[in-house]
C-alpha cells in the first residue's frame, strides 16, 4: 500500500484547507463536482447524491500544479505562479515576482525550456490522469496553463 505525504501549500495566510470543491462551469456535466483532497492527494469526481464516479491519486508536484490551475479557472494560470508552487512551495506576491523575473531572465538567456522542465514534467503526468475526467490542460505559449475539457465529451456519454 502506498503511503501518502501531506501537502501543505503555503500562502500569505497560513490557512490549510485539506478538501476543496470545484465546479468549473462548462467543463463538467451539470451537478458534477471535482473534489481535491490534499491530505490523501486525490482528485475525485462526484455527482449529485453525492456519488463518487472516479478518483485519481496525484503526486506532490501534480497537486502543486493543479491547485493554482483550478483556483484561477477560467483564466490562464501564469507560469510564474506554477513555478513558485513547484520550486518553492510558496505563493506570495514577492515569490511570484521573483519567479517572473527568473523566467524573463531565462527567456533572454535562451534557457526557458530548462526553467520550465519541472512544470512540464508535472503537467505531463497530470494530463494523463485528467484524461479520465474528460479534462485537459491547455498551455498558452510563454504565458501559462488553463483547464479545458476534451472534445467529444466521453465522460458525459458514459454517465448517461
Q: Could you outline the blueprint of secondary structure elements for this entry?
A:
Blueprint: E1 19-22, E2 33-37, E3 42-47, E4 51-57, H1 60-72, E5 77-78, H2 79-88, H3 93-109, H4 112-130, E6 135-140, E7 144-149, H5 154-159
Antiparallel strand pairs: 1-2, 2-3, 3-4, 5-7, 6-7
Primary descriptors:
Arc Repressor Mutant, subunit A; 160 residues; disordered C terminus; four-stranded antiparallel sheet; 7 strands
Report on this model:
This protein has a domain at 60-159: Arc Repressor Mutant, subunit A, CATH 1.10.10. The protein is elongated and about 50 Å long. The chain is built from five helices and seven strands. The strands form two sheets. The protein has a four-stranded antiparallel beta sheet, with helices on one face. Strands 5-7-6 form a three-stranded antiparallel beta sheet. It has 160 residues and is an alpha+beta fold. The longest helix has 19 residues, at 112-130. 24% of the residues are buried.
Amino acid at each position: 500500500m502506498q503511503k501518502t505525504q501531506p501537502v501543505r501549500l503555503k500562502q500569505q495566510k497560513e490557512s490549510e484547507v485539506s478538501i476543496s470543491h470545484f465546479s468549473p462551469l462548462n467543463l463538467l456535466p451539470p451537478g458534477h463536482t471535482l473534489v481535491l483532497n490534499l491530505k490523501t492527494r486525490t482528485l475525485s469526481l462526484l455527482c449529485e447524491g453525492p456519488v463518487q464516479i472516479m478518483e485519481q491519486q496525484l503526486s506532490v508536484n501534480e497537486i502543486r500544479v493543479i491547485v493554482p490551475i483550478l483556483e484561477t479557472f477560467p483564466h490562464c494560470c501564469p507560469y510564474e505562479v506554477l513555478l513558485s508552487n513547484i520550486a518553492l512551495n510558496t505563493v506570495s506576491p514577492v515569490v511570484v515576482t521573483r519567479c517572473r523575473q527568473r523566467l524573463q531572465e531565462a527567456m533572454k538567456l535562451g534557457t526557458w525550456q530548462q526553467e520550465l522542465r519541472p512544470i512540464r514534467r508535472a503537467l505531463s503526468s497530470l494530463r494523463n490522469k485528467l484524461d479520465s475526467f474528460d479534462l485537459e490542460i491547455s498551455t498558452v505559449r510563454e504565458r501559462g496553463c488553463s483547464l479545458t475539457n476534451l472534445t467529444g465529451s466521453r465522460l458525459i456519454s458514459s454517465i448517461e
